[in-house]
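Aim 2 progress. For Aldo/keto reductase, the working sequence is reproduced below.
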Amino acid sequence: MVAYRYLGNSGLKISEITYGNWITHGSQVEDRTAIRTVHAALDLGITTFDTADVYANTAAESVLGRALRGIPRENLEIFTKVYWPIGQKGPNDVGLSRKHIMDGIHGSLRRLDTDYIDLYQAHRFDYETPLEETMTAFADLVRQGKVLYIGVSEWTAEQLREGAALAKELNIQLISNQPQYSMLHRVIEEKVIPTSEELGISQIVWSPMAQGVLSGKYLPGQPAPQGSRATDEKSGAAMIAKFMDEATLTAVQNLKPIAADLGLSMPQMAIAWVLQNPNVAAALVGASRPEQLADTVKASSVEIPKEAMDLIDQTLAGVANKDPEHTYTVSPKTRP
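Predicted structure tokens for this construct:
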């Protein structure tokens, strides 16, 4: 069964393997299969579910809401996000203005068929809205009982510090950040994680398998397998491209003996690796079929010895991205 961790400096516990439905629900996976996969996650001890209004332009939230119908609400932790353009994509259907946040929460509550969201996350930083406006809107939702905690996604260390200070003034808790993090993408380690540790903010990390590259299925010098993410323009092929160079794929193949010595599959080792970081509260995983999750959850509670962690670092030296400046390029400078 999946272990639990506290989320930030709060009393909220979440499953350290958290189910995320980006890409899959409402688009890539047929709804009945998606619902069966959510039920499989519940059977395996996953109680935390992460989605966003922008996923499949709101359809992913609706699928997750149907999948969780009938499950006692107190047994679930439901997370969603607001920022990216949704709906008719009008001038106010994007960003972190008070209007878009208020419209966004009501739409998400309706689609998820719930009275409240456990964690409501700013999906990016909005350079076009005063941060005071954004945080005050979030605080109002907390006081209304529609949201329990506030989180963000892909904020820089400085943005986290400013947001946490405003949250404190407003007597609410900013407890999480949701960045990309994996053996191959470590840009948060130098600035974001130390700042988060100081502020009592946890990381809920997405793409712990580097878009599937850390599964080892992509071989250097060979075409990507048909049906894989790297061949699907609608399923993140552009995002995986940065990991598809010869040097990276070769280094990933050299991880296989390390995983074998640990008695882990490559996906298990990739997920266990991010969970070794004490500032990481959860690794987000997705699945297109129920049976995929049974292997994934075995990464929970795995402790990778220091010698193996050092060997992983050595194997990926020169191909892992550790540049902290990358965190400053993720949020658009103008609204999309």
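The two ends are 40 Å apart (CA to CA). This observation will guide construct design in the next reporting period.
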